[in-house]
Give the backbone structure.
Amino acid sequence: MELAKESVDRRRKRNIQIMFIIFIGLLIFFTLFSNTLQSLTLPKVRTEKPAAGSLVFTIEGSGILQPLAEAKLSNAAGWKVQKILVKEGDRVKKGQKLIIYDSKSAERELEDEITNLEKQQIEQQNIQDQFIQSSMEGDELKIRNARRTIETGKLNLHTQERKINEMRDKLTSQQDITAPFDGIIAKLNAVEGLTSAGEPDVLVSNSSLGYRFDISADSKVLSSLGISIGEKIEVEVNTVQEQQARMIEGTIEEVANEQPRIESSSSEEGGQTITIPQKLLRIKVVNSELKGGEQAKIKLEKGSRQEGWLVSNKAIHEDRGGMFVYKIEEQRGALGNVFVARKVLIHTSETNDKETMIQSDSLYEEELIILESSEPLQDGNRIRME
């Protein structure tokens, strides 16, 4: 009897131990499972490590080359175009004929005025003969009248001669258009057989003075790069004829104020915009092979003088307390490590379009900075890593 009782007691104890072990196992399982489920509901974040170094500032832009100086040439007389001697893109020399106009009507008018002059000269001779006849007769009244008529005729002759000279000069100057300087035919509006349609018949660009193009840049970036008027830069020029771009030396000719750029702010308060002051850079290039209309672009890069922690602009936030970033704080626990977002106030010194240099005693090289989060964060929020 006692042996049977001891056997029953042992089984009971073993069953109790087994049940206890199962209970503890289930408790651990459900605890871990609940933690896993809870972690899946936490905000998911993407991180980066701050890098020590200096910022790289970049200015790049492109534009179409325009002539620094050009002449708009038209026929003031409004004559029809008889012959066009050039085409767009042609290089021309100073004094070279570009367009010949139909001046027949003006030539006929000039011939008519010359004929009128000859008539006046014949009439003047007749008046002089009358003066001689009056002198021989001794009639003082007729003599005085004849003398006044002669003087009037001389004045009329001088007037007619001036008129003819002016018409001759006009005919000479307007029967064709010549290049005012060495240059390139930038545009040709003239059409043979037609008069001017209100636009200049031809535009000639002065190739010797060079070409220009304009780009916009942030004032702060320009200041960081130390760009100044007269500075030499490399310009990449693309032409339709050439498949490969050419590098040409350019010069900063002008730095002027421009309309500021409006950009959305990354402020935590949301809905804010920031105004970024802008400058216009006018760049001049001189090259005998350029014609105008080519695509030109520049890219300037320069490192900042200061050094510090570099983080992506996405990581920077701002509220009423100032600018800050979120770093990840790891908290160790019995059931595993927990990651928490910690707010760190920062001071920015310089920034470009990708990174910001920050100063903070609470950041170290190996720490993780939160770049993006699936949900809005607050200081102390638990998060999960990507």
